[in-house]
Amino acid sequence: MNDLFLKAATKQFTQYKQLAEKAFLQLTDSQLFMAVNEESNPVVVIVKHMWGNMLSRWTDFLTTDGEKDWRERDAEFENDLVTREEMMQKWEEGWSCLFGALQSLDTQDLGRTVTIRSQHLTVTDAIVRQLTHYAYHVGQIVYIAKMFTNDHWKSLSIPRGGSAAYLAEMQKESK
What we know:
Helix content: 55-70%
CATH topology: Four Helix Bundle (Hemerythrin (Met), subunit A)
CATH superfamily: dinb family like domain
Radius of gyration: 18 Å
CATH architecture: Up-down Bundle
Largest sheet: 2 strands, antiparallel
Number of helices: 7
CATH class: Mainly Alpha
Mean pLDDT: 94
Order of helices and strands: HHHHHEEHH
Strand order of the largest sheet: 1-2
Distance between the termini: 29 Å
Low-confidence stretches: none
Structural class: mainly alpha
Number of strands: 2
Shape: flat
């Protein structure tokens, strides 16, 4: 059962990563850097925050507090990246750290206790915490991309009005 949890968590993280990447592809370079208003973050800043969070949480995951002394969280919300390539480098670095940590775990680790911001959590709870955190930010990225692309948005799941066709296709594939 625990092995199933690690596989399911890895699959979910992978799906959220891919979902955001499909949204990135629909945005122009300039749209990645545009904020909807003064209180919102552009996609590039959300990515930078996720990168900082991933490095902090997943580096030495089992042995050190997930909120590292070297993390500069406030700086994650400053837009100092200039290109899509810089953004993607941070994106890949963060995910690589996460997937490396997950791959190093075995089923016996899931009941162990880790610490995030001085809070003690089981490894399972810490994984779920991070999964929901990243899903939240991926949702922001997708929503921003939909706003900027408007009529040109290509659905990342079942398009509006496409439920019946989708169900028919799934039934056909299951036969």
